[in-house]
Amino acid sequence: MSDRSSSTPETACTIGVLRETAPGERRVAATPDTVRRLVALGARVQVQSGAGGGAHFPDAAYADAGASVIDDAEAIAQNAAVILCVQAPDASLLQRLREGAVLVGHLALGGDDARGEAIASRGIVAFPLERLPRTTRAQAMDVLSSQAGMAGYKAVLIAAQLAPRFFPMLTTAAGTIRPSKVLVIGAGVAGLQAIATARRLGAQVEGFDVRPETREQIESLGGRFLDLGVSAAGEGGYARALTDDERAEQQRRLGEHLRGIDAIVTTAAVPGRPAPRIITAAMVAGMRPGSVVVDLAAETGGNCELTRPGETVEIDGVIVAGPLNLASQGAVHASEMFARNVLNFVSLLVADGRIAFDWNDELLAKTVWPPRDAASP
């Protein structure tokens, strides 16, 4: 297996940034700042007109940063050796990319056969950044973490908006109003951001996670660790799936506790699997009228049995929200973080205006899709 292989004959490779086509997607995979840095790497950059509009980055800012602003997506698709995206383009556009092009973004290709076939037929070298190894070196490229932080922040704001209560304690002429009790389920990046945000809003905050090592993180943010007597510490910083007995005991204790909670934000996830069901319909039925559940796992089925992805419903006085793509609601900062993640990854591929793959670099070898055979050149 050769250490490096060049894939472009040009003096300088062209990097393309297209408008996102997924419904409601406002983010962009490159900002004027990261375009300037890509140009400094020796690359030419083409940006489709309006690509940054949803995140309030005007075409003129991209042009000032050194990009060519082009309205024709087809021309960019056919010219660019590298395409940067937030979400994967649809299969029809993938079929029109130049043969052997590089595709970088949060691609979620495993469950889309049409996109997978298009990538294979065009010989596209895809790098779904959600496949990055969870190592210290990869942190600067970790789109899952950067976007989860925005999602956790927005989730608490949604909970505060939907709740018919104040979050902070208030002392008024009409008497003292106690602070709302907020429970955050899952202490990953989104959960920790949710805990910090709820605390800033003045709520009494608890955090629950089946990984006992998260206690210190929750408490460092001013939250109280909710111990339900169930541990599911897994590998790579993720939780393992609970056994049936563990899940039953967790649910029994959690159901009792939820009777005194005003707002819940759920963020629990197991990579490559549907979201674990943590809150049952019976638990929701036991909550006080006016309570709120905001389910960040709605896109993968939801942590709450009553979640309807993309909808907010009221069931016997309890409000259940299943927002989708929350990071897009904070498109400016979410795009800035996402674009820096992408820039840091692309810096592994582009040097002196040329593309070269070092397949001895685990960040490339373990991220590329389809997975490479060890014997591949």
UniProtKB/TrEMBL annotation:
Residues 16-151 form the Alanine dehydrogenase/pyridine nucleotide transhydrogenase N-terminal domain. It comes from the Bacteria. Gene3D superfamilies: NAD(P)-binding Rossmann-like Domain (3.40.50.720). One of its GO terms (cellular component) is plasma membrane. This is proton-translocating NAD(P)(+) transhydrogenase. Keywords: NAD, NADP, Nucleotide-binding, Translocase. PANTHER family: NAD(P) TRANSHYDROGENASE, PROTON-TRANSLOCATING NAD(P)(+) TRANSHYDROGENASE. The transhydrogenation between NADH and NADP is coupled to respiration and ATP hydrolysis and functions as a proton pump across the membrane. It catalyses: NAD(+) + NADPH + H(+)(in) = NADH + NADP(+) + H(+)(out). The keyword Membrane does not apply. One of its GO terms (molecular function) is proton-translocating NAD(P)+ transhydrogenase activity. The keyword Iron does not apply. The lineage of its organism: Bacteria, Pseudomonadati, Pseudomonadota, Gammaproteobacteria, Lysobacterales. GO terms for biological process: NADPH regeneration.
